[in-house]
Design a protein that fits this description.
Helix content: 40-55%
Distance between the termini: 7 Å
Mean pLDDT: 91
Strand content: 15-25%
Number of strands: 4
């Protein structure tokens, strides 16, 4: 079993949820994205955004690997930063296209 943090654009929420479930059913402990429940441009304060960002980095820190969900090869700037953070910690980087039979 590996502990894997999911990274990717929130515009692919449904796909991320399906992929996360598939990986969990293969015996991996999946740490998912915290999905926003509030809507609107100013729904979250800067402090709240900072807390969520720090918590996501903490998930990466305690993981064995990250899973980059890159639908249509899209990787946004936040995800690019998460990949660099994981690389700096010598974490395994798994891309969505690589998970057909990953365990």
């Amino acid at each position: 079993m590996k502990i894997i943090t999911v990274c990717g654009s929130l515009k692919f929420k449904e796909e991320i949820m399906q992929i996360t479930e598939k990986m969990a059913l293969q015996g991996n402990c999946m740490l998912s994205i915290t999905y926003p429940t509030k809507t609107g441009k100013d729904a979250y304060t800067n402090e709240e955004k900072e807390i969520l960002g720090k918590m996501h980095k903490e998930k990466i820190r305690i993981s064995d690997a990250i899973l980059v969900v890159n639908i249509n090869n899209f990787i946004g700037s936040s995800t690019k930063n998460e990949i660099e953070f994981a690389k700096a910690l010598n974490k395994e980087i798994i891309y969505y296209t690589d998970i057909v039979n990953y365990s």
